[in-house]
Design brief:
The protein has 434 residues and is of the alpha+beta class. The chain folds into three domains: 178 residues, tricorn interacting facor f3 domain (Immunoglobulin-like, Sandwich), CATH 2.60.40; 92 residues, 2-Layer Sandwich (Zincin-like); 125 residues, Neutral Protease, domain 2 (Orthogonal Bundle). 26% of the residues lie in helices and 31% in strands. It is built from nine helices and 22 strands. The strands form five sheets. It has an eight-stranded mixed β-sheet with strand order 5-4-8-2-1-11-14-13, with no helix packed on it. The chain is globular and about 60 Å long. The chain starts with 20 loop residues before the first strand and ends in an 8-residue tail after the last helix. Bound molecules: zinc ion. The site of zinc ion (ZN) has 4 residues, from helix 4.
Length: 434
């Protein structure tokens, strides 16, 4: 009924999500025509009411709604400004399980945001989804808040000339006439913004390493892709040693056949643009960054966007650790250089609550990484990496808060770290590197 407050204060996107219920499973049957950018779908959500619901809301962009069913029966609905308000025939009791089915069709258009359009986007010859943080309603009806994680089945039907890649395991692929239906199942709970469908004329190759890895790419990029992702298997090995077990069954990379401003993570997947592969590993730090999000962001997901540093600080810090592990500059050199740079920048951000406007401010990324390097110096390598591994194990496939991380770090180090974390996370001035 009301917007969720999260666990960390005022929500950054009060128009997104509904705290009145939680979704357990999304079943999406989608049909997409690439040329006209036409998406039709049926979404079936299995949910549980957190309170008695006279009505509830889903987030969904400007599609034409054919029908809304609650528990199999027609329900009244009103759809405007990205919200689908549903009034079931009878109120739903607190803790009751219920289903919602929505049939919809239209031209998916990105959700407008402070960072431009987010979500489903048409490419020159295909489509991508870049959902972070509020782009999911551009392609399916959802409870769009990061802490409401659910399992998914995603079926996509499109022309057979295209590959359709979605999160999870490919469980079925059937060709009927000129179209092919691809069915994926995502068994581990996933936040809405990490759900993804990538459609394009791609080839793929498999990479060697401790988990199955597949890279989809336009054929012209093959040589560059082979070289630039050539060390990804070793990267997974290094991160498994440092952060604990890789959280998913496989890892998929899509190099879209277009230039992208920045790469983007999805669950069990990352999406790069052709501009991110140069055949010289010039962007390898981004390969490490996106991979690290599988632990930090995808397995461990913030309950509230105010804690974004738990995603971006950790992924940026992982870039430095990969540099160190692969014989490049040690993490300390990166930390000292970025500390000196941040000292020159305005110090007007609170890292653990930067405000929606600064969600993707580079200072959040770099100061977030610096907190971790500073912690490593204060508690030593043994306690630091034990903290990282206990963190990913304790909250695997769950949601997390800053308070949970600082409490765990203090427990592992067996010493109070309150003053340390307050200075780095809650105050604006940049503390000196220990
Ligand atoms: Zn990132």
């Amino acid at each position: 009924m009301k917007a969720p407050s999260g666990r960390g204060g005022a929500p950054y996107f009060p128009d997104h999500g509904d705290g009145g219920y939680g979704v357990r499973h999304y079943d999406l049957d989608l049909e997409y025509r690439v040329g006209p950018n036409r998406l039709g779908g049926t979404a079936r959500l299995s949910a549980v009411a957190a309170a008695r619901l006279d009505r509830f809301a889903l987030d969904l962009g400007a599609f034409r709604i054919g029908k809304v069913l609650v528990d199999g029966g027609p329900a009244r609905f009103r759809h405007r400004h990205g919200k689908l308000h549903v009034t079931p025939v009878r109120p739903i009791a607190r803790d009751a399980a219920f289903t919602v089915e929505v049939r919809y069709t239209g031209n998916p258009s990105p959700v407008s945001s402070l960072w431009g359009g987010l979500g489903w986007e048409q490419l020159t010859d295909g489509s991508i989804v870049a959902g972070q943080p509020i782009g999911a309603p551009s392609w399916f009806p959802c409870n769009d808040r990061p802490g409401d994680k659910a399992r998914y089945r995603i079926a996509v039907t499109t022309a057979s000339a295209y590959e359709a890649v979605a999160n999870g395991r490919l469980v079925e692929r059937r060709r009927v006439g000129a179209t092919t239906t691809w069915v994926y199942e995502q068994d581990e709970p996933m936040a809405t913004y990490l759900a993804s469908v990538q459609i394009g004329r791609y080839q793929f190759l498999e990479l060697a390493g401790p988990v199955p890895q597949r890279v989809y790419y336009p054929s012209a990029a093959e040589r560059r892709v082979r070289h630039d992702f050539g060390r990804q298997g070793a990267m997974i090995e290094a991160f498994t040693r440092l952060f604990g077990r890789y959280p998913f069954g496989a890892y998929t990379v899509v190099v879209a056949d277009d230039e992208l401003e920045i790469p983007v993570e999805a669950q069990g997947m990352s999406i790069f643009g052709t501009n991110h592969v140069d055949g010289a590993r010039g962007q390898e730090r981004l390969v490490a960054h996106e991979l690290a999000h599988q632990w930090f962001g995808n397995s461990l997901t913030v309950a509230s966007w105010s804690d974004i540093w738990l995603h971006e600080g950790f992924a940026t810090h992982a870039e430095w650790l990969w540099s160190e592990a692969s014989g490049g500059e040690p993490a300390a050199a990166h930390a000292e250089r970025w500390h000196a740079r941040l000292a020159e920048e305005p110090q007007d951000l609170v890292l653990a609550d930067p405000g929606a406007r600064h969600l993707f401010d580079d200072r959040v990324y770099k100061r977030g990484a610096l907190v971790l390097h500073a912690l490593r110096r204060v508690v030593g390598d043994e306690a630091f990496f034990r903290t990282m591994r206990e963190w990913t194990a304790a909250h695997r496939h769950g949601t997390v808060t800053t308070g949970e991380f600082t409490a765990l770090a203090g427990r592992v180090a067996e010493r109070p770290l309150d003053a340390f974390f307050t200075a780095w996370l809650r105050e604006k001035d940049l503390p000196p590197l220990p």
